[in-house]
Amino acid sequence: MKFSGDSYITHNAHAATVLVAVGFTCLYTVAIVFFYCDWLFDLPGANPLWYGGLLNGLLCLTAAVVFLLSRKGRVREGSAIGVGSVSYLASLAAVLAASPSSSLLCAYVAAALAGVGAGLLIPLWFSRMGMLARNNSGYVLGISSLVSAPIALALDLLPDGALVGGCGVLVIASSVLLVVLRALPHQEETEPSHLLATAAEEPSDPLKRLAAPLAYVFILSLAYGVLDVVAMATPTATAADSGFASQGGGIVAIGVFLLYVPFGKGRYTALLNASLVVVATGLVFLPFLGGVYSIVLVVLTHVGWEIALLVSYALVIDVFRSDKQKLMGWSAAVFAFPRPGVVLGGLVASLVAEGSHFAFAQMTIIAFALLYLIMMGVWLLRTREKRAAERALRKRDELIKRYVRARDDVQMLACDELSAAHGLTKRETEILRLLAQGRDAAHIERTLFISRNTVKSYTKSLYAKLDVHSKQELIDLVNASLELDSISF
């Protein structure tokens, strides 16, 4: 079937959107498998903190390298695709080697290599989303994340050999699509974005748009890291329960994000703070649930964390979509930013925990969440007041500009009437308009590109024709003409 004109462009845009969604889904599924690492707990003596430290540490290090290279415009997509794909495939081979031999070394090597693969390939897919129309990139982000979670859950139920094989196919498919879409042109924006606020509603500095979501993500990353360790240490819960509950909470969060996008009109503050209220409420009141308290806390915290992640991803794609290198660099930074918080939270929980129930850690995170809730409420109130004041100032300035333009137009008409009534030349009329505005000889000289003596000569002739003897008398004459015009009108 052949397409022509707008139909051909629309067809290509839809095809590109589908391919980006499929490719990101493939890679993000593999990333989820490594982040939740349910296969790790089958190995005797495995330490999730060591695994998480290596995975997130190498991810952050790789993201830092991508960010620094992007600032110099030296990120090479072909090299990034090759190194990232090989790293992920090597990490899967390490997982396969670790399973029968119970080799913790192979498991930790797999974590490190997976961190490198994610740090290189995830920013490339954010870059591909940036080439789509703004609304398409947001929906691709949400839908791909939603589809990835259940696929990852299904893969975790397979034997290790099948898990590795499935993930290998997904990595290869993702890499092939990255290459296919490498020459993808930017799609034209055909309608206002439903994802992001207009320029009048957002701060002019792009980084200010990212500051609040990133701060929210990092705070919840700390809380999530603490609560995940607490949940795994609870006698009534297992590590698998915690991981399964976290992924289930992530699916719920992505669903909420997708439902909110068409109705929120880019006002993500309401979504972020609604999530915070849910998390804080659970922290305060859910101890009455008894043994499942820790699991429910993990779910609630992960819901808020996942929503904040999606918001930060959508914002970074929109803010830097016009610059491919910056988009890759900042995407790498934003994707890696919350990972140290998770590791640090888990480490803190292990250090401050008291007894097998981690009661002290629970009370610590509850007090921290309440303090954060109060601080966020104060910050939101101040931000809303500041934005209201800025909007009032903009309206005032616009009214002043309109008044000045209207006054100048009326004054120009009065000058033209005086010019016609007294037989002024074109140059004399121009000088009359400037003098009526209160301009001096130097300004007239620069504006009309004439000499100072020429200005004096024309001014003298103008005064004689209008029968005035000074600039103030001339201004009074023009103002009197304005008053007569308004009376006659």
Q: Given the C-alpha coordinates, what overall shape results? A: elongated
Give the CATH topology of the largest domain: Growth Hormone, Chain: A
Number of helices: 17
What value does the average pLDDT take?
76
Number of domains: 3
Question: What is the level-2 CATH architecture name of the largest domain?
Answer: Up-down Bundle
Number of DSSP strands? 0
What is the string of helix and strand elements? HHHHHHHHHHHHHHHHH
Helix/strand structural class: mainly alpha
What's the gyration radius in Å? 32 Å
How far the N terminus sits from the C terminus, by CA atoms, comes to: 67 Å
> Share of helix among residues?
over 70%
Beta-strand share of residues: under 5%
CATH class of the largest domain reads Mainly Alpha
As an assembly, this protein is: single chain
Describe the biggest sheet?
none
Low-confidence segments, given as residue ranges, are 1-10, 188-204
Summarize the SSE layout with pairings.
Layout: H1 5-36, H2 48-71, H3 77-101, H4 104-130, H5 134-156, H6 160-180, H7 206-233, H8 239-264, H9 268-285, H10 293-319, H11 324-336, H12 339-352, H13 359-422, H14 426-436, H15 441-448, H16 452-466, H17 471-488
Walkthrough of the structure:
Residues 1-10 and 188-204 have low confidence and may be disordered. With 489 residues, the protein is mostly helical. The chain is built from 17 helices and no strands. It folds into three domains: 10-184, Growth Hormone, Chain: A, CATH 1.20.1250; 200-396, Up-down Bundle (Growth Hormone, Chain: A), CATH 1.20.1250; 423-488, Arc Repressor Mutant, subunit A. The protein has helices spanning 5-36, 48-71, 77-101, 104-130, 134-156, 160-180, 206-233, 239-264, 268-285, 293-319, 324-336, 339-352, 359-422, 426-436, 441-448, 452-466, 471-488.
